[in-house]
Amino acid sequence: GQNIDQPTEMTATEGAIVQINCTYQTSGFNGLFWYQQHAGEAPTFLSYNVLDGLEEKGRFSSFLSRSKGYSYLLLKELQMKDSASYLCAVIYGGFKTIFGAGTRLFVKA
Amino acid sequence: GAVVSQHPSWVICKSGTSVKIECRSLDFQATTMFWYRQFPKQSLMLMATSNEGSKATYEQGVEKDKFLINHASLTLSTLTVTSAHPEDSSFYICSANSQPQHFGDGTRLSIL
Fold it and tell me: For residue A90, what is the nearest residue in chain B, using CA coordinates?
């Protein structure tokens, strides 16, 4: 079966850097996405990795290692508004998507 | 970028009522749309894949007679929760076959 693992919760301090890890096991791989989801709202797209390596986008970076089935999302210069759930999602078999349970990030002052 | 509109945002209704949720692609044609359900503090769970002009594909454990999906045009898919009960209360989200997936704003369904 398909599976994604990511930590349930993380806490970090405003201004700091935090890394959220994601490991996956899927039958096939067409890409990995990270989404941000605030409570009661729909997910919003953050980043996309299809090749190994680091993708940087402002304060957010995402890394992928396909051989290890591993990705991480790096958030720099944390702000209070970054408190949210971060979902790792893998596309496989065309348009099929599996989502991780999400990592709830709490940013404290 | 791709924009998906979902309506309504909130529904509160009595047990036994049927509720229809609409998902529209506003600036592109969506041959495929996805319907997800999310319970509090849990992941998005794919319920079904909606295909324009053909029957929807339901995930294991999802009752197709309870969750009716219609995708009659390239810009509209609807999910009807028939005879809803309190256990159907959840956050329902649609998305379209764009990469990355762009989600509607979701519908919070509360059955009393």
Answer: B100
Three-state helix/strand/coil letters over A48-91: EECCCEEEEECCEEEEEECCCCEEEEEECCCCHHHCEEEEEEEE
Mean pLDDT of B80-92: 96
Which two three-digit tokens encode residue B108?
């919070």
- Give the model's pLDDT for residue B63: 94
In angstroms, the CA A43 to CA A46 distance is: 9
Question: Closest Cα to residue B93, out of B2, B3, B1, B4?
Answer: B4
pLDDT in tens, B22-78: 999 888 888 889 999 999 888 889 999 998 888 999 999 999 999 999 998 889 999
The pLDDT assigned to A50 comes to: 93
- Within 10 angstroms of residue A18's Cβ, the number of other Cβ atoms is 19
Q: How far is B16 from chain A (nearest CA, A)?
A: 25
Biggest CA–CA distance in chain A, Å, is: 43
Contact A97 B101 (CB under 8 A): yes
Measured between beta carbons, which residues in chain B are less than 8 angstroms from residue A89? 101
pLDDT in tens, A9-21: 999 999 999 999 9
Distance CA A20, CA B29 (A): 34
